[in-house]
């Protein structure tokens, strides 16, 4: 019975988008959006298309002089650590290979336990009715010797299901986002090398340090120089097949932080994809530790959800 309900939940879930969930990201993708300076929108689709289709204009022949570690660290900070905490309403649309669509709406709350360190996250689902009051809770740890903690509360069963580390790169509620896309992938899990530098971006290749724990052989990430945000990530198999893509489709400046407000994950083999859009994004709200407690799984903090 439990397996059947979990399968129904997973298959019926619509895609969100708002923001990797409070600025996500990605080296992964920001989940709470990406701010836009003034009213000026950053043309991410144009940048991405240029990087994919056009020849590169290298800024420097000596790529060894570029501080790759700083580029990656700054990208992680821009994507995951906007403000000390954050809130966003999100809408996800899941489109399968037959062009059938499902929708999900939820609210994301995020809190940094320490600057550039451990984080807490809650995702509260509100629509449709079959997933209403479902809650995803994350305790994210930067120390790789400590596993991230992830739980899913299923109200129909009044059950808290723990998401094991082996499931972190599986579908998040039926979408093409993975659980790890939502909570974030630690940069210390991969080795990075600079492949190209253009006028507007750095293109880096990332190889997992523990290849047996992931489904990809490597990924190539494009980091926008202006915002420092990862705007395009292509995942490759061992035979160099590009099978998965994560894109920051739209970026805005919110409270001074470049924030991804629309993102997309594509299954390049089937043509299916998921879009996520964020709105009502706010940072530095003073969210308390009690908001992210186990108690909030069954008793959500309503004052932050309306």
List the helices and strands and how they pair.
Blueprint: H1 2-12, E1 20-21, H2 44-53, H3 68-80, E2 85-95, E3 101-112, E4 119-127, E5 135-140, E6 149-154, E7 159-163, H4 179-183, E8 190-197, E9 201-208, E10 218-224, E11 230-236, E12 242-254, E13 257-267, E14 273-283, H5 295-298
Antiparallel strand pairs: 2-3, 2-14, 3-4, 4-5, 5-6, 6-7, 8-9, 9-10, 10-11, 11-12, 12-13, 13-14
Describe this structure in words.
Pfam families: LolA_like. The chain is mainly beta and 306 residues long. The chain has a single domain, classed as Lipoprotein localisation LolA/LolB/LppX (outer membrane lipoprotein receptor (LolB), chain A, Clam), CATH 2.50.20.10. It has 5 helices and 14 strands. The chain has a 13-stranded antiparallel sheet with strand order 7-6-5-4-3-2-14-13-12-11-10-9-8, sandwiched between helices. The radius of gyration is 18 Å and the shape is globular. The two termini are 33 Å apart.
Task: Please describe the biggest sheet, giving its number of strands, its sense, and whether it closes into a barrel.
Answer: 13 strands, antiparallel
Oligomeric description of these chains = single chain
Query: How does the overall form come out from the CA principal axes?
Result: globular
- Tell me the domain tally: 1
Mean pLDDT across residues: 82
